[in-house]
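Standup notes
- DV: blocked on the single-chain target, sequence here:
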Amino acid sequence: MKIGYGIPNNQGVEDPNDLVALGVAAEALGLNSVWVREHLFHSTYVAERLGDKPYHDALTVLTAIACATKTVRLGTSVLVLPWHDPARLGKMVATLDQLSGGRVDLGVGVAVTKDEFENLGVDFTTRGKRTDEILGALQALWTQDTPEFSGAFYRYSGLKFSPKPLQKPYPPLLIGGSSAAAHARVARFGDGWHTLRQSPRQFAAGREKISALAEAAGRNPSSLHYSLALPLKFTTKAPSAPLQDRTALTGTEDDIADTIRAYDAAGVDELVVGVSSADVGENTDALSRLMQQVWPKL
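- DV (later): unblocked, structure below
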């Protein structure tokens, strides 16, 4: 199993340079990847958490981290595809992939913040259909010299598109969500599944469903990458939930090590841990403790 770190661009950190410094620290500690989140407005639960504090742009932060690091992979957890124009997003991601030496993992999802869709003028009810179309459009933009694509929302023909991503055929597309529609989207489009706050029991069941769907679609399920984002918090209090029903990494070093082992057995290829705090020191301390006192136990 690999380990990644969720950069707290969604936690109200005032100075975005601190987010870059955390990315550098994660690489130095030996983590495999860093990940950013996305919301454009302070909607519903985002507003409750942040108030007037900033939610920094996902790809801008990731680009700055790319320029300050050399090996750590760069993930999105997740970009909300219906909010993006595929040609513009395709160019940004391809440029980032070139800039970083081929380190991008593109996690994508559909989101559930209806008020945010309304503010952006995007039809909430068609977000799934639009997401599927954008995925197809991105694949065409990244793999065809002169992309030909025709859908209900986007059409491209007759013009060259560049740059292409450094990774071939394109950066891994990791599909977010835990619904039946998300599972089907992984099987159809995805190079992997990247979901949030699933217990070991839930994750294993989801992976089994995706494997069956992928096989039915003529794809090799073993080629897919399975990752999961979870909160991390060290405490002296043991987790209240049974091992198979935990949805966070909490407790002592031994408790957290036991939970990680359960996720490993459930088929998680990469755990992405996040510290729900804007305090840079708290983030650094938790990461250091994880990598120095927990990871060697595994």
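- Follow-up: The longest helix spans residues 127-143.
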